[in-house]
Design goal:
Chain lengths: 107, 385
């Protein structure tokens, strides 16, 4: 009896996965007209990159930058190049400091 | 068949005797596979989207380098490039970045030139005059502005320009247009205080696609400070980018994977005294070594296959139906303007088989090997421990 329940669960999961994969290949895919519209957009605006990471120019336009570009900007910036995950950021501190001192001893 | 079913029945009863321990194992195993599959599904979908979309990108982009950095390129370079045999149109591109203090977001400013095509993914129209713009959905959301509203940008002289929003790119183009502010060339030059004889880079048309690399080489020889980037390099960059991205996220979850490995190893490699005694008794009452191995195979299979399928289902639903909500913070980085985009599933049988081989097979092997050692030992010794 238990083996039938187990086989039933596995079969159910397999069917569910197959249904999801079929939905993914059909209903979730953009229509041909939609793909053409996006390609027209890329072509008309002469786009070269995805607008995903806007934090730095080398993440906004990875295809237009050099491999060493991340280190020209800011060592603590999170980016996708491997060395960036290994090199630790520099110590952060304030750029200017304003000190107030009492001129005369208080009464 | 009947014999196999009976051994499976016994294996399931054996697992149910330690149900809380095994249930915990299934939960952890499922979660690890859900995370791994989410990362793989997410990055592979982005990669296939990039390959499809960037097929329409410029064939060749020529930049100028100065001091190791991308610099503005003189329009005269375009004239020189145009004279190379095989080169068609050379169109200057005007674009740059703008940090908005109000929203703390980075925008990409882009100029459209003379011919303004009719775009289906744009609500409204492209700008036709100075003082107008079309923006991406992310810019509209960050600035809480809509069609007919105004986007205020500061130019290089500290003057503010209020641009009337003539169009907003639709949400389905978010992956391409989310942070874009499209305006006329005059407007962009004014904002960046850029001389009219300099462009950001040049888009070069090559008549014969196969000659692109050769033309790039000729440009490099003709203009040593130029850097040509071909469409092929562009697509290859994206393939590498998503690999590193997935690599980074995978590294983050490596800890979880290692923890699971320790758990599985502990559970599988070291047979408990109870399990050893069970094997001894089974041998004593007449079970063959092959039967015991089959029993252990089914035990391992029941746990790993259930977990694998459950994890795969969770991963798929997480990425393609819930928009990868758990991965977003890791992928997002420091981006203030981050697109909301729906991914198109692109799952191959190869990916599923790789995950199956990397997870189910080692676990099942871990279960069988120590049991085989126990099964070939004399039952009396095994029972006495």
């Amino acid at each position: 009896m238990k083996h039938k329940i187990f086989s039933g669960i596995i079969a159910l999961e397999l069917i569910l996965l197959a249904v999801l994969l079929i939905i993914g290949k059909t209903a979730l895919q953009p229509e041909e007209a939609e793909i053409t519209s996006r390609k027209n957009l890329v072509s008309a605006l002469m786009l070269t990159d995805f607008s995903v990471w806007t934090e730095a120019h080398y993440t906004r336009h990875p295809s237009q930058t050099d491999l060493f570009t991340p280190f020209q900007d800011f060592p603590a910036a999170i980016e996708h190049f491997p060395a960036g995950s290994i090199i630790a950021p520099g110590r952060s501190g304030t750029a200017t400091r304003l000190e107030f001192r009492r001129q005369y001893p208080s009464p | 068949m009947n014999r196999h079913a009976k051994i499976l029945e016994y294996a399931l009863s054996s697992l149910l005797r330690r149900k809380y321990k095994n249930l915990g194992l299934v939960v952890v195993f499922s979660l690890v596979i859900a995370i791994l599959s989410s990362v793989l599904f997410f990055t592979d979908s982005l990669r296939s989207e990039a390959t499809a979309m960037l097929a329409a990108a410029p064939q060749l982009v020529v930049q100028r380098l100065s001091g190791g950095r991308h610099d503005l390129i003189p329009l005269a370079y375009g004239e020189k490039i145009r004279r190379i045999p095989g080169v068609g149109k050379v169109v200057p591109r005007y674009w740059g970045y703008y940090y908005d203090y109000l929203t703390r977001g980075n925008y990409t400013l882009l100029a459209v030139d003379q011919d303004r095509p009719d775009l289906q993914l744009l609500e409204g129209s492209l700008p036709t005059a100075v003082g107008e713009c079309a923006i991406g959905e992310g810019v509209a959301r960050a600035g809480m502005i809509g069609l007919g509203g105004y986007l205020v940008l500061a130019d290089g002289r500290g003057q503010y320009a209020a641009l009337k929003i003539r169009g907003i790119f639709s949400a389905s183009s978010n992956l391409l247009t989310n942070d874009l502010v499209v305006m006329t060339r005059e407007q962009l030059l004014q904002i960046f205080s850029q001389p009219a004889d300099l462009a950001t880079d040049l888009a070069v048309q090559v008549y014969n696609e196969a000659e692109t690399a050769l033309i790039a080489k000729k440009i490099k020889l003709l203009l040593p400070d130029a850097r040509p980037i071909t469409r092929g390099e562009l697509i290859r960059t994206y393939e590498a980018v998503f690999n590193w991205r997935s690599g980074m996220v995978l590294t983050m979850f490596l800890g979880a994977l290692v923890a699971f490995c320790i758990l599985a190893w502990e559970k599988a490699a070291g047979l408990s005294a109870g399990e050893g005694r069970e094997i001894g008794i089974l041998k004593a009452i007449g079970w063959e070594t092959g039967d015991i191995l089959e029993l252990k195979f089914w035990e391992g299979m029941a746990i790993s296959l259930t977990s694998f399928l459950t994890g795969l289902l969770i991963g798929y639903v997480h990425v393609f139906f819930l928009g990868a909500v758990l991965l977003a913070p890791a992928i997002k980085g420091w981006s203030v303007i981050f697109p909301r985009f729906a991914l198109n599933p692109d799952v191959s049988l190869y990916q599923i088989l790789v995950m199956l081989v990397l997870t189910v097979v080692p676990y099942t092997a871990c279960t069988i090997v120590p049991s085989w050692k126990a099964a070939i030992t004399d039952p009396d010794i095994v029972m006495r421990g």
